[in-house]
Request: fold
Amino acid sequence: MKVKSLLAAFFSIIYFAAFGQADRALSLLSIEKPVFHTSIDRLGNFYFLSEGMLTKTDGDGKVLAVRKDSIFKEGTFLEAWNPLRIILHHRRKHAGLLLGQNLESYQESVNIDPAFALAPLLIGNGLRSELVWVLDEDYSLKEIDLANMRMLTESPSIFNAEEKRNFFALRLYQNFLFLLEKDKGLHILSRTGKLLRTIATPFPVFGVLGEDFYYREQDQLTFEDIYSGDRYSVPLPENGEQVIASDERLVLVRGNKISFFKFQPKQ
Reply:
């Protein structure tokens, strides 16, 4: 019995370590100005947007590309999930900048016909390159085919259009829409714009990893399976204003300081 108990304890320790992270950062990066928006692409590269500058790194903190541009200001939304079509969009504008994998500008850009959206708050990637999702000023969600200039779906207002709200992340993933609202929480919606659930969290942290999505709860990062609802949490090795995770790295941002930690999520 003692041997079985010892073996159980041993394997429990190994199991915990398998999806834990190192307490000491693998690498540290300092950039010129504080980071106000982050993103990650599906290849595991990280993006850090600060006043006048966008920085792309690999998982070890090695700088892969830098772009300096005066249009990068507080309130600019960054979505890099598709590394070949990185979207930069300023709130209430009908045009968005498209960048390639080296942060170069495409001649093509995202242009939303004002007949389709009053004043776009957020623009996110759709299932195909010609499709985008738009959160409009009245808090309705719209799926727009840019190539053929037509509206595919449009939801009623999800929230009271008279209320002032601060949304700053929109992503389509695993056929669900995730909408992050500052100081309020993470909203999960169907593709028709039906609000399915809200997870209350004041932290501006959200991401996806496999079949999980994650958000921050106090000093830990919580992962939840989209389909089963299974949850687990990992402690953060240090405090950070923003947190991003991949299947190999945990990245914490404080001002202009970026720390990269080894990380392996639960399988």
